[in-house]
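Tokens in:
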């Protein structure tokens, strides 16, 4: 993906230290100060700090009981499912770092309470809590291919519901031509958002026809469980005929708009990461070929397929739009 190389003078002192070390150092200083205060008041024993070595128990995910959901057998694969451990540890989630290894950092993502705002040109604007949304929507499992613009791919058992189900619930007005989706904005929680040269928050968008296509899927789980944070909990998009950067993670706002939204990567590099971003092996990225892909976890390369093999579902969406850069 597009990475801006910072000039020396743009790096604040705190970023000169690797982020993880920096955060640990701050956490250490903070807890040392707090412990000092408690010690001074004789409060550590009283507070039960010495009573057990056990770490604080993690809060169970309130949606745990909804998984696994029944698989929709309409969506089949031509390859093995990517092992879960490969998938959860090879991610793009720039809010938590620019490497693929963001799983630990992404644990800082706070996914409850979590609300999704519906706004714009709809009959039913408002805020909906994720657990209410999960109860209201028809959850199912789908096996999808997932093709990143960087020429790697996976095959994922997602759980979620058709984006169309949410659109029907929101009741768009006739002026709504695009669906714009936005990630949270919280640079305290997500250190990547302190990198001011990125146009945070992450934004993606689809035309109304794309968003109501059978394949457009809002994901809440994977591998028969609630979605891991590294994969964009508690709500992300999957549009398997498009390059993966269209699959916005950790969505907090869905807006129905008349104008085509400017998307995150499009703002950074319009000639490399456009609005349409449909998979096409015959259209190279300006800096590399898209003819084949590395299938993660297998050590193999496979030829890439037009629309990632989903042409029967989506090719008709683009009739009459041939002049648009549909594959960029
Ligand atoms: N969404 C947010 N909010 N932030 C991101 O950095 N990266 C995108 C997309 N959605 C990204 C995002 C890219 S480039 C890809 S390839 C996919 O998420 C990666 O999804 P995965 O980590 O589940 O494979």
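Residues out:
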């Amino acid at each position: 993906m597009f990475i801006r190389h910072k000039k020396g003078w743009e790096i604040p002192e705190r970023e000169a230290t690797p982020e993880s070390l920096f955060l640990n150092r701050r956490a250490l200083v903070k807890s040392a100060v707090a412990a000092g205060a408690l010690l001074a008041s004789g409060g550590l024993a009283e507070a039960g700090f010495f009573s057990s070595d056990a770490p604080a128990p993690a809060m169970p995910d309130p949606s745990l009981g909804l998984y696994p959901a029944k698989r929709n057998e309409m969506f089949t694969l031509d390859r093995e499912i990517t092992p879960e451990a490969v998938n959860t540890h090879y991610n793009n989630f720039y809010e938590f770092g620019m490497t693929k290894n963001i799983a630990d950092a992404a644990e800082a993502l706070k996914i409850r309470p979590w609300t999704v705002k519906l706004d714009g040109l709809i009959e039913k604007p408002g805020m909906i809590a994720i657990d209410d949304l999960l109860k209201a929507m028809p959850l199912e499992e789908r096996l999808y291919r997932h093709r990143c613009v960087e020429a790697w791919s996976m095959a994922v058992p997602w759980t979620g519901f058709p984006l169309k189900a949410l659109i029907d619930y929101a009741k768009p007005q006739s002026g709504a031509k695009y669906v714009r989706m936005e990630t949270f904005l919280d640079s305290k929680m997500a250190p990547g958002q302190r990198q001011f040269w990125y146009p945070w928050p992450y934004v993606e968008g689809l035309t109304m026809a794309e968003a109501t296509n059978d394949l457009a899927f809002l994901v809440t789980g994977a591998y028969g469980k609630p979605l891991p944070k590294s994969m964009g909990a508690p709500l992300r998009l999957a549009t398997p005929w498009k390059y993966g950067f269209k699959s916005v993670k950790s969505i907090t706002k869905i807006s129905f708009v008349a104008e085509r939204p400017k998307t995150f990567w499009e703002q950074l590099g319009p000639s490399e990461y456009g609005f349409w971003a449909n998979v096409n092996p015959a259209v190279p990225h300006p800096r590399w070929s898209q003819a084949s892909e590395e299938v993660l976890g297998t050590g193999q390369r496979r030829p890439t397929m037009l629309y990632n093999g989903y042409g029967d579902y989506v090719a008709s969406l683009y009739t009459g739009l041939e002049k648009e850069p549909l594959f960029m």
